[in-house]
Specification:
This protein is of the alpha/beta class. Helices cover 52% and strands 13% of the residues. It has 2 domains: 3-175, Rossmann fold, CATH 3.40.50; 179-283, Orthogonal Bundle (6-phosphogluconate dehydrogenase C-terminal fold).
Length: 288
């Protein structure tokens, strides 16, 4: 499959890497970039991520085979509203949002009959850096992408999105929106919230400078994702509020359990819990 023209709404890490990967695979003839900030679009153009800047949605969508929304999820409804009047019947629309139930609800509210053209998706990949300068052609290599297709989607539309992600080097899986949001709350959204919380806790301490000065590899590895886009993760936390709150409550119970073990000096209990976690972590074949 060859896309004549792909439009990217949001040319930062996720959208920019998608564009670069498609280009590297020889899957697209032209990539058009659209977004809120002209400075960001100029950067993407200078870096070769996009071939042309579109300042209006109709300019981005004209003759477009595939359009990708790769912006913070809170912006999705506004972007969809701007896209909808100009969405050609032959254009397949997808997204890269980290939450799916809210995105689908916004799409149904805005797109009307054009919902048939929207195939929701989410690449399970990223970096702690953001913006066009962080984009990598290999970001999705051997990573997983979750599609949450709608009953209205045609097989051809789902296939087009699937082939695009496979060309980026990704493995494509399918879940329902509810399953996606529940699972990602546990293995993605909760870890980011915890990393932000730990760094913020130490930053507020009276001896913060000393603590940060002595931080080493353990702190670095645990908190790396706290350098991620605050805007994006603010939106994700609120968009997936119920599932995330459930995971936070479960984690709080685990912390209370750990607090009790340490308080009681329960060495056997601590070692049992740590062994369970260590063995499970070592058994996981997680992509780097």
């Amino acid at each position: 499959m060859m896309f004549r023209r792909v439009a990217i709404f949001g040319v930062g890490l996720i959208g920019g890497s998608f564009a670069l990967a498609l280009k590297r695979a020889g899957m697209v003839q032209e990539v058009v970039g659209a977004g809120r900030k002209r400075e960001t679009l100029d950067q993407a153009l200078a870096l070769g991520i996009i071939d042309r800047i579109a300042l209006k949605p109709e300019e981005a969508l004209a003759g477009c085979d595939l359009a990708m929304i790769a912006a913070p999820v809170a912006q999705t409804e506004n972007i969809l509203s701007s896209i909808s009047p100009h969405l050609e019947a032959s254009t397949v629309l997808t997204d890269a949002g980290s939450t799916k139930s809210d995105v689908i609800a916004a799409a149904r509210a805005v797109l009307g009959e054009k919902i048939v053209q929207f195939v929701p998706g989410h690449p399970i990949a990223g970096r702690e850096l953001h913006g066009p300068q962080a984009a990598l052609a290999e970001l999705y290599q051997n990573k997983r992408v979750i599609l949450t297709p709608l009953p209205e989607n045609s097989a051809a539309s789902i296939s087009a999105v699937t082939q695009a992600w496979q060309a980026c080097g990704a493995q494509v899986d399918t879940l329902s929106a509810v399953q996606h949001d529940a699972v990602l709350a546990a293995v993605s959204h909760l870890p980011h919230v915890l990393a932000y919380a730990l760094v913020a806790q130490i930053a507020r301490a009276e001896d913060a400078q000393l603590k940060f000065g002595l931080a080493s590899s353990g702190f670095r590895d645990f908190t790396r994702i706290a350098a991620s886009s605050p805007e994006m993760w603010r939106d994700i936390a609120l968009a997936n509020r119920d599932a995330l709150l459930n995971e936070l409550s479960t984690y709080q119970k685990m912390l209370e359990h750990l607090h009790g073990l340490i308080e009681r000096g329960d060495a056997a209990g601590l070692e049992k819990l740590f062994t369970l976690a260590s063995e499970k972590r070592l058994s996981l074949n997680l992509p780097k």
